[in-house]
Specification:
Two copies of one chain form a homodimer. Chain A is α+β, with helices and mostly antiparallel strands and 404 residues long. Chain A is 51% helix and 13% strand. Chain A is built from 14 helices and twelve strands. In chain A, the strands form four sheets. In chain A, strands 1-2-3-7-6 form a five-stranded antiparallel beta sheet, sandwiched between helices. In chain A, strands 8-10-11 form a three-stranded antiparallel beta sheet. In chain A, a hairpin with a 4-residue loop joins strand 6 (99-103) and strand 7 (108-112). The longest helix of chain A is centred in the C-terminal third of the chain and has 33 residues, at 281-313. Chain A is globular and about 65 Å long. In chain A, 48% of the residues are buried. The A-B interface holds A 150, 155-157, 159-160, 162-163, 166-169, 171-172, 175, 179-180, 183-184, 206, 209-210, 212-214, 216-217, 220-224, 316-319, 321-324, 327-328 and B 150, 155-157, 159-160, 162-163, 166-169, 171-172, 175, 179-180, 183-184, 206, 209-210, 212-214, 216-217, 220-224, 316-319, 321-324, 327-328.
């Protein structure tokens, strides 16, 4: 098989897997199935019939397809993804799939198979409860963000690391779809006619636009830490016991709050979606209470572990000034709340939606869910700069829920 | 002559100059003199005896010497310097020396000779007046900062440009000497025993440290625009009619206010130095009034032209939201004032001082100048986040001057 880039066939994927030492026995009979959605990547699932051992091979395609549109996309994202996975794996060994091999020519990453996990978004739609999730993801966020920032790593090495994760094409997707298109009548937008009144109100809300402009500017300039860059519940594999963060192809140096906000936004999108998924008011209230408790738990774990890392592993003398840690953490909280709001709004009126809301069959319930998600998102964006505690988020969510 | 890196002799410099087409006639008799201080670079001044035509060849040395200390320093800074000069030259053709050639192997830049100009710091010490300076440098700052930022250039190209200007070693010098060492008893510090009381007060002033920590953090993370990175009056060649910015080897993507603040700080350091240079109170007041008027003129020209560029050449849709320009400019002003303060403090108690104060012979006058510079610097740092206008700077300067 030539190593010049070309999309692999299932047979070529098997042949490639056999070249990796210690993965499969030489005589192993391997089955291969391509299980990706074909929008951005090929995903090969390769299984050894006798041992049952399996791996995943993910190959980047030279284009992106979103909702029928297709545009060229750099293969360098495969390098960024595999390097980010390996770095995250060093910092949080149990919270990302292990990487067995990265093949630059083929834009191919060979990694641990997580088929015993499910995509968290599906789990939430099925109204499952993950008692360990907040602790796991809070730990992941604290360690990956602190230890790649100027607080936790050598500041000259950080600059070189930042250079390796310059990621213009993937950042552009975020800049357009999250921080611009939802706020005017962009051709990429996609929303139900039922909520056009609310969408048009957003297009003309210049107080909201001012806050989004600030958050967009932070995304463009604030090189605080190496982000996952796309940390929604579709980028998380989960079981009751285990959490695995996948797909960091949007990784770049940006504001810490963008990653934390992504997690919180996606929990709250499911919260809104419970208009359609919960069988009755009581179970809706119950599941929502768990979601809100999880939002709080994500932030509280992040904050506790981030502060502990600061107290134990700070490399920056000036940042040890009494009071600076509080100022810093408060700013991360504010960013988190603002970015969470942006990520909610765009999932209702922008190009890419979430199944938590879009797959609701009942039109009235779906509309209620969309309006609730927009109301929470807008309120988070408008409030973000004056937030003082994670309580502000639960208060806003409860207020907007009660108001409907 | 081999092109493998080695420090050139004057004869080799002449031989190299002859290889550049259209610079000198083939039969020209060339004289060469090495005129650098030997701390960071060799600087060859090459003249054609008959035509009088001359050029400068600047070659980076693989080390830095500051006050007797010597440490290795990357030759890549020659590339950064020549690329920054060429970029600045495109944006402000009359405000930087023209670059004729860059030779990467030799870390060598061949450029316009500016011997008819003098170093601005010398001009200020001689109490000369430059009526066009504020307009020139304000124009330079507005264009170089706006047009390299996410406001004025394609945001994906900006990321790639930022990657080319990752500059860890030179940034480290700034991070240490400006944003850390002056605030504790660091071995690099250097100050007169006469002001030890004031220095120790700075070391224990944790309110001051908090503000410096914020500004340091901005320097480390806020990739707003391509900075010159070392824009003091020793990096400016000047005549009454002409201003030329040189030596951008510290260029990197950072906060706009750092460059503007550098210019203002160095005008104010000379203001403080007038304790020693002005022959009498009246002429001191007069020259200081010109310096303050120039500080104001630098900011006002910057602001006027920056806003004009914004109104005419903005590439960022969300930033066009009414009100965002005011928010942005106010933040740049605040950063400018904070960074100006940091740059004043470090020039009195840190490793590298300025001749405007250090060369004052009269010990009492020198001490007054040092105390005044520190008082202004501290006040600017502490006030920076609440500043609303450039008037705040003149008010602080006049208050601290009157208080002594």
């Amino acid at each position: 098989m030539t190593k010049q880039y070309h999309p692999l066939t299932e047979q070529e994927a098997i042949a490639y897997a056999r070249t990796i030492p210690d993965l499969f026995a030489p005589q192993a009979e391997l089955d291969c199935r391509e299980i990706g959605d074909g929008n951005l990547n090929l995903v090969f699932h390769i299984t050894d019939r006798s041992s049952g051992r399996s791996i995943i091979m993910k190959q980047a395609l030279p284009y992106a397809k979103v909702v029928g549109e297709s545009w060229p996309l750099t293969l360098d994202r495969a390098r960024i993804e595999s390097e980010a996975l390996q770095l995250e794996g060093k910092l949080c060994p149990n919270l990302v799939p292990r990487v067995y091999r990265y093949e630059p020519e083929l834009a191919l990453t060979v990694m641990e198979d997580l088929s015993d996990h499910i995509i968290m978004r599906r789990g939430l739609i099925e109204r499952r409860v993950y008692p360990l999730f907040a602790g796991h993801i809070g730990h992941f966020l604290a360690r990956t963000l602190f230890l790649t920032s100027d607080l936790g790593m050598n500041q000259q090495e950080k600059k070189l690391q930042q250079k390796r994760f310059v990621n213009p094409e993937l950042c552009k997707i975020t800049e357009d779809l999250i921080f611009a298109d939802p706020y005017y009548d962009a051709p990429t937008n996609s929303f139900d006619e039922a909520i056009r009144d609310e969408v048009e109100a957003i297009w003309s809300d210049s107080d909201l636009h001012l806050e989004v402009a600030r958050l967009r500017h932070g995304f463009l300039t604030n090189a605080q830490a190496l982000l996952h860059g796309d940390l929604h519940t579709g980028s998380i594999f989960i079981t009751e016991q285990s959490t695995k963060v996948i797909d960091p192809e949007f990784a770049y140096y940006g504001p810490m709050g963008f990653d934390i906000g992504a997690v919180i936004a996606n929990l709250l999108l499911n919260y809104a979606g419970q208009e359609g998924w919960s069988p009755d008011a009581e179970s809706r209230a119950q599941y929502r209470a768990w979601l809100l408790q999880t939002v709080r738990g994500v932030w509280e774990t992040f904050e506790r572990e981030f502060r502990a890392l600061w107290n134990e592993q700070l490399v920056d003398r000036m940042s040890a000034t009494p009071g600076f840690q509080d100022i810093y953490v408060e700013q991360v909280l504010r960013d988190t709340i603002g970015y969470a709001g942006c990520k909610m709004v765009r999932r209702v009126i922008g190009l890419a939606h979430v199944a938590d809301i879009d797959r609701i069959d009942d039109a009235a319930a779906k509309e209620r869910a969309q309006r609730l998600a927009l109301a929470i998102g807008k309120a988070l964006i408008k409030h973000h700069r004056s937030a003082a505690s994670i309580d502000d988020v639960t208060r806003i969510v409860e207020r907007e829920t009660a108001a409907r």
